[in-house]
Amino acid sequence: MRNIININENWKFIREDAGLPAEYPGMWQTVDLPHTWNAVDGNDGNGSYYRGKCWYAKTFETPKQPLKGGRVFVEILAASSEATVYVNGTEVIYHEGGYSTFRADVTDLCKENGENLLVVACTNEPTDRVYPQQADFTFYGGLYRGVNIISVPDAHFNLEYYGGPGIMVTPKPTECGGATFEIEAFVKNADENFTVQYTILDEEGLEVAYASRPASAPKTTIFLPDAQLWDFENPYLYTVVAELLRRNEVYDEIDTRVGVRSFSVDPQKGFYLNGVLTPLRGVARHQDRMYIGNALDAEAHYDDACMIKELGANTIRLAHYQHNQYFYDACDELGFAIWAEIPFISVMSKNPAAHENCRQQMKELIIQNYNHPSIMFWGLSNEILIGGISEQLVENHKDLNALVRELDSTRLTTIAHVSFTPTDGPMHRITDLESYNHYFGWYGGKLEQNGPWLDKFHAENPDIPIGISEYGCEGIMTYHSPNPKVKDYSEDYQAVYHEHMCKVLDERPWVWGTHLWNMFDFGCAARDEGGVAGRNNKGLVCMDRKTKKDAYYICKSYWNPEPMVYLCGKRYAQRAGDVREIKVYTNQPSVQLYCNGTLVGEQEAVDHICRFDVTMSEGYNLFLAVAGSVKDTMTIEKVEAEPEIYTLPVEDDGSDGAANWFTAMGSVELDDGPMEFPEGKLSIKSTMGQIHRNPEAWAIVDKMMGGKMNPEHPMWNMVENFNMEMLMGMGGDVPEAALKAINKQLNAFDLIG
To answer: In this structure, what CATH number is given to the domain that contains residue 521?
Structure first.
């Protein structure tokens, strides 16, 4: 029988390229798995976290099988981002890709008696062969999911096929209220004496269906006459057990959970689950936590899923790689529509081997996760046009899409376009569904552009199901303002942003799916903005999971039908002025507001918000909001002057930036005519890379940007393909005069290369 032995405790580790040890390295540091060496420096804010080769070592005894001819496998649940595995000094497997499971048969290298030395060399060094190449998150290194030793008889369910579970189950509902279960198991080393028997169990563990097949042809279809459907409110799971028998003895056994559901997307109406129109509204998620990095245990993964369920979201985009099986299992249990993707992100490598790595990671993603009912979409890439477009890039996407359809015809393919992807370009109509990452109201543009952009795209492309794969803005709880504005990084502006976006998306059910960026703040070692270095602060919840920001609750009021009321601005605890607006979020029809025990008034909620103008008393003001059966309270102190800490120390809004640009450019005469883009000359249409090739032009741009971006910056490979027009827009609402000024300056210089 199969025996899975967890060996996560008491590993030896060294954070340097110490080389393959000849014997057990007792002097190395002792660590438990899961483990990453970037738990702290992965959030350093300057991109200098350790990216190199490190070594892990562990001893294990050879497990004994009662059956003749047993096999021993090493199972690595993930190793970032390349790994080489050795047993007793001999290399057994090399794996490229930091987010998937892989295994190796080590039977012939194991000692019959005594301990074996298992060594794993991991590296997260930059390479042009393995994705991701460049991205706005930390590439944590390490054995961050754990390691098992698996013992099986010689005849067993296959452990070597792309790290998969050895069984694929496709449940399909039938019109009569039943379901068919198409089942295929993958068997190794079984002769004519072996059979495979399948048992389907309900959630109570009771047998509801059975089938038996010869091991040489194990594929079958089982009909279940009365099947419970899997949906978001009742995610009913069946368990399929596969047993490999030799006459009257079970040699090997595996099981998997599945759900019976159907889904589709109509470009004019939106997403359907089990025939019911169900707009998908949810979040994206990264897999790390503060000072833990990506080395999360099972409880942490489940807690994340529960927090998202509490929000009322029904979909999660798992950015930008394969996540832990614990999280997929939680999503199956709680009920989400999952977008799962590979880390083909931002920049396409010119190395042809990198495309093979893309294909490899896609195969692993699909084969390892095929049985999860929560997964409904396979994502091909994210913002890949940041690195520029080419015929090869388009062909690579077509190849990936064909591969996905070959491996899994039951799910839909999708893509996350960067905001500036042309709406009429060749990247469209490759995948079944499409989405855009738009940050109007944060990285350029105005908040009010979101709805009109969706309407225009929808009208011009009625055959394309369109979604929003990213939207959001930074929210730092220290900063507050009575007049929040873009780029002030305040918790208040983040709330205003999501108030608008919730309404925009709620009014457009035909938008098949929306994924707010991000559920949680996450690590990005290269970031340093808003006074909080080393992370992206667009989360609705802080990176340590301790605090939910105000924006969390406006989303909850739209997405979760359970009665709720929330007084916005609890951390804006000291406010100046006699009359202040008190804002209340709710999913109830109306709200009563009390201040210091006196009724201020009652209002009907408009777009889930009630706004009260309150004359505050000196000192502390105690507020109570009542909406039906639910209540919330907060305390606000009236002060003469608000604390300086409420304001971002260095203003980073568009107007200040424009002023700085004018200063950097010196005296420039402008006219009222249109901007010019002469052939062979630089302009705001030129990329950062093109400008950098002209030293004189670069000196101006470098001064304008305060020397913050150059080829030594960790994110240069992404930014060098941004044109100046786009980059200036990301800094805020840039006046046309500023665009004209820098364009005129650049026109004086030749385009080189």
So the answer is: 3.20.20.80
